[in-house]
Amino acid sequence: MLKKTIWYSVFTVAIAGIVVLAGGFYQALKVTTESSPYQPAKVIMAQTSGSSTEAELKNTNSLQLLILGDSIAKGTGDEKGKGFSTDLPQAIKTDTPKDILVTDAGINGLESQGLLAQLQNGSLNKPLAGANFILISIGGNDLRTILSLNPQAQEDEFKIKQDSYLSNLKQVLTILRSSNPNAYIVFLGLYNPYEKTTTEEEVSLWQEWNYNTEQLIESNPKAICIPSDDLMKFNLGKYLAPDGLHPNSAGYLALSDRIRKSLGGVIAGM
Amino acid sequence: MQQTPVLQLKNIKKTIKGKEIIKHIDLTLYPSQIFGFLGPNGAGKTTTIRMIVGLIRPTEGSVTICGHSVSRDFVKAMSNVGCIIESPDMYKYLTGMENLLQYAAMNKTIGRQRVHDVVEMVGLQHRINDKISTYSLGMRQRLGIAQALLSRPKLLILDEPTNGLDPAGITEFRNLIRRLAYEEGMTVFVSSHLLLEIEEICDTVSIIKQGTVIKTGAVQELLHEDKIEWQLNDPQKAIALLDEHWNIKAVQLKKNTVSARLGEPSLAEINELLIKEGLELTYCSSKQNTLEDLFLGLTEGDQIV
Amino acid sequence: MYSLIENEVTKMIAKKRLMFVLAILVILISVFAYGQNRTLARTKAQLTQRMGITATTDWHKLAEQQLIDMKGRLDSPYMDAKSQSSLTVKMQQLQYDLDNNINPLDQSAAKFTATFMEQSIFLFLPLLIVILAADMVSGESSSGTIKLLLVRNIPRWKILLSKYLALIILEVVVIFCAFLLSALISGFFFGFGGWMAPVATGFRVLAGKLDASGVFNVPEWQFSLMVYSLAFFVAVVVGSISFMISVLVKSTAASIGIILATLIAGNFISFFLSDWTLTHYLFMVNLRLTDYLSGAVQPVDGMNMLFSVTVLIVWALVSTIVSFVYFTKKDILV
């Protein structure tokens, strides 16, 4: 009798199962082959690029700021959603009566290669040409990829990464200069968000990276490399976002303030 | 005869992988008959049975069961057959009863009562709910017969049925076969390499050798032709007498033994005369080994193919 | 026909094959769930250590910040139009987690259930099906019971069809049990919820590239349903092929061996010969159907859901036809 019972339950499960699974199978096919029911809105893009074209209507009463680079350029981590694109103009505003127009082209996760490509494809030509200041934050994502490697591989990979990074950065500077010889370029140095877990070797690699970057940037007369590590190192608890990587709102404010101070001399003269 | 034959094999041939296993077989079986299919190992008995039940196709010829061709009307033909082939292979992980229920479920005409009847017929009622893996060969043989009987077949085919049965079981089995044939009108097809088996229960026998039926006849008729041995004091005289009175060519086997094949005259008649002529007849053996002699004589010098 | 199928299923159950398969499932799911639990704990510990803050307990802030961040990215003029929908999908997921107070790092029974089958579909599930299917005909051949089965007043094709249908029934049972067991067992580790959480799907492979522009969220229960349906489809295909081998080969061990070798070879082939177009038509390289669903697919030119499903259907059909033709014609000599 037990066997009969098992058979009946097996049979019921099978019949019900086949119906349900056939439905699921149909759905799965539909989902992966048909065009989706949700069409992403592409309007947003048109709108914002419209506002940036507005920006390059040369207004002598305004200063133009172009922000380039990775998630830090983008303002990631700011719980108020502001970042440099809001904080920096506000900071600068204290030194100048002029309006500050901002174009923020930061992209999360961008590496130096990506930045170069972004500049090469020409989409930034107009904001680039009109910019008075260019803020760049790049390299963190290049360097971060070597963290997970073992010490031996780390050193090898570091050299490879650094070489390509420096060469990319060099080309980036060339492009910037060729389309805009006069803008002040501000490069934000790397800080170390992983203070507690970094090994000595890693610290020295990271310093080497910063040093070489600084050398490259400073060789350009109208460019400055502003370190961020001295500001962040003992203030990680205060300035770091919950993701443990990006600055938080206070962090961006502090960094913006520092940049303002560095640029104070040139802004006053504009 | 006017009756429809239960089983008819017409000019059966079978070649497997270029080898002619069955060369030529013709057979006709009528209802209520116990038929013996006798042959040495490898003569083609099992192959023939497989062709009868449609497990393999004859290369040539036709098999008809109760008027239905096995190849063209398999379902109707097989409705009339119950069989065991070679060994009684059962599902070891099921009990005897579950095995029978499996087969019963495959035929709507078989009810639960029939299953119980069949179990009783073969005397398995005490162990029927045990797993087959615990069964002896004899018990599996009984279960095999039970499964063959389930559908009340008109033709029952049993391949080496007494393998593994104990003497009591063999007797029981023979009684069962006789009852089925003579009371229920079944035709029973028994294949065996054991002479005693065939001699004991069969009405008709075919002897198969190297894929060909070499002799078919009623067991009684075949026995008539068989050899008799006498032990007597004067073999030469006996030989002369046999030749003189019945034209029987006898031979001297051992010192005091004479052997001959009998035709018309009865053994009693001959013995009476021998004693009358003053011969001292110490022993006379007849039937017991005769079919064996016939069989050995017919299959003499054969190698197993 | 009904009682013939019942016979076959009864045999499979009595043979303990089904129990065996279910036992393997229980063991493996338990091990997986335990392993996932350990990994999760370790990841959390690592995160806490690395970030210096309790990202695992303080995930609300983190999630909120990520949300703001993604919103910012979505508004960016330099946002790639194609990534917009995947960003929207991610935002919806994060929003759901926030609204329902679910730490995005945490596993749930629902997530585990879907992941388990996604990971099993190309090797483990076929293996279970092979255990069932490889024995269906060759088992009867090697034990000799096939003789008694074929001398009934039932045509051979009906016998074989009953076996095939019994196999399909058992496949449903295996899929059903895999679902039930992974939901239950992982529930003890991760809690039984998560069935309404959004999961991204709707990826397409266009011109050899994964296209995420049409991505959208479906609830986890629906996603699991689709995953298990695809798994069932794969089970039927692998079952049909194993069934054919089982018909062609007399010994169960040999038929299991042949199919396992084929499956494992398939995994090698998809590694080493992926640019050889002919290999795309092998059934083994087309088994990872769920990857199309979850977007985990390694895009290969010319291969998409429709292609894979068609290839698998053709394999199943041909196998079934070969099985039936061979079985109804062959001489039973065992």
Description of the structure:
The complex is a heterotrimer of chains A (270), B (305) and C (334). Chain A is elongated. Chain A contains 12 helices and 5 strands. Chain A folds into 2 domains: 1-39; 43-268, SGNH hydrolase (Rossmann fold), CATH 3.40.50.1110. Chain A has helices spanning 2-33, 43-55, 71-74, 84-93, 112-120, 125-130, 140-144, 151-179, 200-218, 229-232, 236-239, 249-268, and strands at 62-69, 99-104, 133-137, 184-188, 223-226. In chain A, 57% of the residues lie in helices and 10% in strands. In chain B, β12 (251-252) and β13 form a beta hairpin. With 305 residues, chain B is α/β, with parallel strands linked by helices. Chain B folds into 2 domains: 7-222, Rossmann fold, CATH 3.40.50.300; 227-285, Alpha-Beta Plaits (2-Layer Sandwich), CATH 3.30.70. The model of chain B is unreliable at 301-305 (pLDDT under 50). Chain C is mainly α. In chain C, 70% of the residues lie in helices and 4% in strands. Chain C is built from 13 helices and 4 strands. Chain C has a two-stranded antiparallel sheet. In chain C, strands 2-3 form a two-stranded antiparallel ribbon. In chain C, β2 (204-206) and β3 form a beta hairpin. Chain C is elongated and about 75 Å long. The two termini of chain C are 25 Å apart. At the A-C interface, α1 and α2 of A face α1, α2, α3, α4 and α9 of C.
Give a quick set of tags describing it.
heterotrimer; A: 270 residues; alpha/beta; Rossmann fold; 2 domains; 57% helix; elongated; C: 334 residues; mainly alpha; two-stranded antiparallel ribbon; 13 helices
Can you lay out the helices and strands and say which pair or pack?
The complex is a heterotrimer of chains A (270), B (305) and C (334).
Chain A: H1 2-33, H2 43-55, E1 62-69, H3 71-74, H4 84-93, E2 99-104, H5 112-120, H6 125-130, E3 133-137, H7 140-144, H8 151-179, E4 184-188, H9 200-218, E5 223-226, H10 229-232, H11 236-239, H12 249-268
Parallel strand pairs in A: 1-2, 1-3, 3-4, 4-5
Helix pairs in contact in A: 4-12, 5-8, 8-9
Chain B: E1 7-16, E2 19-29, E3 33-38, H1 45-52, E4 60-65, E5 68-69, H2 74-78, E6 81-84, H3 96-105, H4 112-121, H5 137-149, E7 155-159, H6 167-182, E8 187-192, H7 195-201, E9 204-209, E10 212-218, H8 219-224, E11 227-232, H9 235-246, E12 251-252, E13 257-261, H10 267-276, E14 281-285, H11 290-298
Parallel strand pairs in B: 3-8, 3-9, 6-7, 7-8
Antiparallel strand pairs in B: 1-2, 1-4, 4-5, 9-10, 11-13, 11-14, 12-13
Helix pairs in contact in B: 4-5
Chain C: H1 2-14, H2 17-51, H3 59-75, H4 81-99, H5 109-120, H6 124-133, H7 138-143, H8 145-150, H9 156-190, E1 198-201, E2 204-206, E3 209-211, E4 216-219, H10 220-248, H11 252-272, H12 290-294, H13 305-329
Antiparallel strand pairs in C: 1-4, 2-3
